[in-house]
Amino acid sequence: xxxxxxxxxxxxxxxxxxxxxxxxxxxxxxxxxxxxxxxxxxxxxxxxxxxxxxxxxxxxxxxxxxxxxxxxxxxxxxxxxxxxxxxxxxxxxxxxxxxxxxxxxxxxxxxxxxxxxxxxxxxxxxxxxxxxxxxxxxxxxxxxxxxxxxxxxxxxxxxxxxxxxxxxxxxxxxxxxxxxxxxxxxxxxxxxxxxxxxxxxxxxxxxxxxxxxxxxxx
Length: 218
Description:
Layout: H1 5-19, H2 24-41, H3 48-59, H4 67-81, H5 85-95, H6 111-115, H7 125-140, H8 145-162, H9 170-180, H10 187-204, H11 210-215
Helix pairs in contact: 1-2, 1-4, 2-3, 2-4, 3-4, 4-9, 7-8, 7-10, 8-10
């Protein structure tokens, strides 16, 4: 029997993880979640919107403590499901897979606490460099003031949440993102937050090629 599109993508993703040294337990847990997600994806149109809808349907069936790992798995599985060779290659080169857990979680907070006096928050040189680089890239794309202002606030939340991270790497970034996402109450703002998270990552890394890597600019 021929494999479904979802199964082919899952096999490729898990094989990739295995090549990166993922433990048997990691592979088992991610495979188990994908079994549930794939049921929701069958015959769906191959788009980000369809994937996000299927993911939300799957997440509501999971205990809260399992959702962070599930989001992480879905994020990594997505380019395989889309059969996006370029994205997979970039993911491999710039992100890799963090199969070792880091024992850190941002302190519990609320959205009100994070946004209070946000405009008056001060940032160090490295944080300002990443923030300025991202906002300049948006300006170069022709984004209007309201878009830049909204995204600037979301980036500041990302930076504030990451201040206590014990190490600056993709795993810490993902942990912070996954534990901040539930603070946003509407799907619209959650989707916007995730867009900013994806776009800001290379700027947070202060990669000199961040604009090209994120927006395809040379």
